[in-house]
From TrEMBL:
Protein name: DNA-binding transcriptional regulator
Record keywords: DNA-binding, Transcription, Transcription regulation
Species for this entry: Promicromonospora soli
An example molecular function term from Gene Ontology annotations: DNA binding
Stretch forming the signal peptide: none
Length: 316
């Protein structure tokens, strides 16, 4: 590859990485003069790349819309990172086939040296089952729905939807992925409260809601999802009386399990949940602390069955 050709590829990579660049910025990154940048821009236009120039001090450049699209330019680490991500995504329910197709297409356009690296990585690795903490299948990811939600967030467009068989109008602010689930964080228009909505429980209605001026939520979005899902985002919810102080319980649980509330006489209440009774029973059994469960009744019955089963295992 000649010096000029290599520089043009580097220039295209910079234009792809950011919306706009000034001429001096590009010159500094490429270690060339402003005049060389102007000449290279002219060469790119001659090759059919839609480079737009904005007049002004230093000039500004950006890739325009339409025309011949530039090639996908990745360095070694970027190519391997994308391949690893797509390989992991082939076990995500709902996008397995599309992820596998994308990985195949990526490998076809990579240079031979990178293709060999990615192929070696694929052949040398394997993945264990992702869902090892529940007897409930992961919900399928609907790429089309995620795309609609992301567009509504971008455009500050309100949503009308059914959520757990109830109508809602929501001002969406962010999508959060957690525990192999997708959650839409937004403000409920009728109540004014912030809420995480599980995407696989959400059905959009037409027409949508009104446009809105976004407000920054007064909390960390990921922490909010983790905390609120423990209360409302599971198929099964439980309040467990733990016979230990709250700080001791907090020291033993993963924040993903639930929230802890101090109670009387040195006890505490663990608010937790899961997608099945069996999952909740496993989590609270791993506390290593005495506890009392009074509801839901299905969990009480399952713990009674586990007690009988474990006793039989010990006494024969």
């Amino acid at each position: 590859m000649s010096t000029t050709a290599g520089r043009l590829l580097a220039l295209l990579g910079l234009l792809q990485s950011r919306a706009e660049w000034t001429g001096p910025e590009l010159a500094a990154r490429l270690d060339v003069t402003d005049r060389t940048v102007r000449n290279d821009m002219a060469r790119l236009r001659d090759l059919g790349y839609p480079v737009d120039g904005v007049r002004g001090p230093g000039g500004r450049y950006r890739l325009g819309v339409g025309g011949k699209l530039p090639p996908l330019l990745l360095d070694d680490e970027e190519a391997v990172a994308i391949a690893v991500g797509l390989r992991a995504a082939t076990v995500v329910t709902g996008i397995e086939e599309s992820s596998a197709r994308a990985l195949g297409k990526l490998e076809q356009v990579l240079p031979d040296r990178l293709r060999r690296q990615v192929a070696a990585l694929r052949s040398a690795t394997s993945a264990g089952p992702v869902n090892t903490d529940s007897n409930v299948e992961d919900p399928a990811v609907d790429p089309g729905l995620l795309t609609e939600l992301a567009a509504a967030i971008r455009d500050h467009q309100g949503l009308r939807c059914w959520y757990r068989e109830e109508p809602h109008e929501v001002e969406p602010i962010r999508l959060v992925a957690w525990q192999r689930r997708w959650y839409l964080v937004g403000r409920d228009v009728s109540s004014g409260e912030w809420q995480p909505f599980r995407v696989d429980w959400l059905e959009l209605r037409t027409p949508g809601g009104r446009r809105f001026v976004p407000a920054d939520p007064p909390f960390d979005l990921t922490e909010f999802v983790v905390r609120e899902v423990a209360r409302t985002g599971w198929a099964v919810h439980a309040r467990i009386l733990v016979h230990a102080p709250a700080d001791e319980v907090l020291a033993r649980i993963n924040p993903a399990v639930g929230t802890v509330e101090p109670a009387e006489d040195g006890t505490s209440v663990l608010v937790t949940g899961g997608d099945s009774i069996e999952t909740v029973a496993v989590w609270i059994g791993m506390l290593g602390l005495d506890f009392t469960v009074r509801e839901p009744q299905g969990l009480v019955d399952h713990l009674a069955e586990l007690s009988r089963r474990y006793a039989a295992a010990v006494h024969g």
